[in-house]
Structures are given as C-alpha cells and as structure tokens.
C-alpha cells in the first residue's frame, strides 16, 4: 500500500525540520571557526558550570582543526539546503534544468562531505572514541558508494535505481541532524545513566545512522515505482 498524503506531509515536515537543524549547526560552527581561521586559535575561557564546560570542550575540539572542519560543514550547509529541493516533484517537473544543475552541485558537495568525514574520522580525535570513529567511517563510506551508484544510474537513464540510491545517500547525510537531539537526550539523562560523552557519543551516532538507513529502505519499499521510467516521488 502506497503511503497516504498524511504520511507524506509528516515525512516532509520531518525532513524540513532536520534540514533546518543541520543548517543551524553548520552556521553556528562556521561562526565559531571563521574568526579562528582569520585571527588564530585562542584557548577558550573556563566555564564554571560543568555542563557549559563540556560543551566548550566539544567546540574546542573542532577549533583545533578549523580548515578541515570548514571543508566539511560549508558543503554540508549546501547539502541541507539543496537536498530537500532535489526531491520535490513540483520543482523537478517545472524547472528540470535547475533540478539537474542543483543536482550536480549537490553531488559535488556530498562527495566533499563524505571524503572529509573519512579524513576527520582518522585525523581528529573522536569524542566517542573508536565507537564513534567506526560509525562515521562505515556510514561515510556507504554514503560515498550510494552517491556513486546514484550518479551511475542517472547517467544510464535508470531513473528508479537513481531514485533509490539518492534516497539512501540523502537519508544517511541527513542523519547528522538527527544525531544532535539524540546526543541531547543522552546529555539530559546522564544524571540517571551515569554515561559520559565519551561513552554515549558513539552510541548516538550508531542510533542515528541506523535509524535513517532503515527509514530510507522502508520508504523505498513503500514507494517502489511500477515502471522504471515513471516519475518518482519522495
């Protein structure tokens, strides 16, 4: 049974919300790192509040790698903005040339995101240690494979297969926005769980990525086109 209009609206609402969260995270990080890139690194002032001190320490980790982090998040901002538009059937039908042009920009940004995520997994210390690094390495690799498959199929005019792999790639990329509230839940409940950021960051990454991949596969299965060349909805 095909998803009804209510489910589709709920999905679009979730996508727009997560894209907004991802964009806000990217803008906040850029605002923090650009002055460091211009003026150089300055050690942060110590916060008296333990919670604020933990968030300051997290920001300081990226402050030691401003160039690499910006290479990752600037295209990430474009990913969050262009991604939902790529799946709009209205835009695709009325502005096909723009859809193709923005799609190329989206693919280029996505490849930069995936490659820089792999570099960050090995070049930067992970807050969640090996568990987080393993999650980002695995899903960044899958993200890049999905992009390559999507590009290969669209070059061969295999629209349905292109759609499937683009959904997988976008869903995995969008998972970074879902990971933020999951981390927030762990922070909010750490008084009861006793878990530290080193212990729960990796778990949060696995939960976010796996949930998004499962959601992508479920949506692909539920909206499978009847014909290879049929227009595809999100």
Helix/sheet category: mainly alpha
The helix-strand sequence is HHHHHHHH
Number of strands: 0
In angstroms, what separates the terminal alpha carbons? 15 Å
Indicate the overall shape.
globular
| Proportion of helical residues | over 70%
Q: Spans of 5+ residues with little confidence (pLDDT < 50)?
A: 228-234
Strand content: under 5%
- Average pLDDT, rounded to a whole number, is 88
What is the rounded Rg?
Answer: 19 Å
Largest sheet: none
Count of discrete alpha- or pi-helical segments spanning 4 or more residues: 8
Indicate the topology.
Elements: H1 5-39, H2 50-63, H3 66-86, H4 89-94, H5 96-123, H6 129-155, H7 159-193, H8 197-222
Structure description:
The protein is an all-alpha fold and 234 residues long. 82% of the residues lie in helices and 0% in strands. It has helices at 5-39, 50-63, 66-86, 89-94, 96-123, 129-155, 159-193, 197-222. Helix 1 packs antiparallel against helix 3, helix 1 (5-39) packs across helix 7 and helix 5 (96-123) packs antiparallel against helix 6 (129-155). The longest helix has 35 residues, at 5-39. The radius of gyration is 19 Å and the shape is globular.
């Amino acid at each position: 049974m095909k998803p009804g209009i209510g489910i589709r609206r709920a999905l679009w609402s979730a996508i727009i919300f997560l894209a907004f969260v991802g964009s806000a995270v990217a803008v906040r990080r850029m605002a923090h790192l650009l002055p460091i890139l211009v003026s150089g690194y300055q050690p942060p002032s110590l916060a008296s509040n333990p919670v604020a001190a933990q968030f300051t320490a997290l920001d300081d980790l990226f402050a030691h790698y401003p160039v690499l982090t910006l290479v990752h998040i600037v295209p990430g901002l474009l990913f969050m903005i262009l991604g939902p538009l790529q799946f709009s059937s209205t835009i695709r039908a009325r502005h096909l040339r723009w859809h193709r042009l923005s799609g190329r920009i989206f693919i280029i940004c996505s490849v930069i995101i995936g490659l820089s995520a792999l570099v960050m997994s090995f070049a930067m210390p992970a807050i969640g240690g090996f568990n987080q690094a393993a999650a980002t390495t695995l899903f960044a690799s899958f993200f890049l494979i999905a992009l390559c498959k999507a590009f290969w199929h669209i070059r061969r005019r295999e629209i349905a297969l292109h759609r499937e792999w683009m959904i997988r790639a976008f869903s995995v990329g969008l998972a970074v926005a879902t990971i933020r509230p999951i981390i927030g839940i762990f922070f909010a409940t750490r008084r009861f769980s006793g878990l530290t950021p080193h212990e729960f960051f990796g778990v949060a990454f696995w939960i976010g990525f796996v949930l998004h991949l499962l959601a992508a596969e479920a949506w692909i299965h539920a909206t499978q086109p009847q014909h290879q060349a049929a227009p595809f909805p999100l």
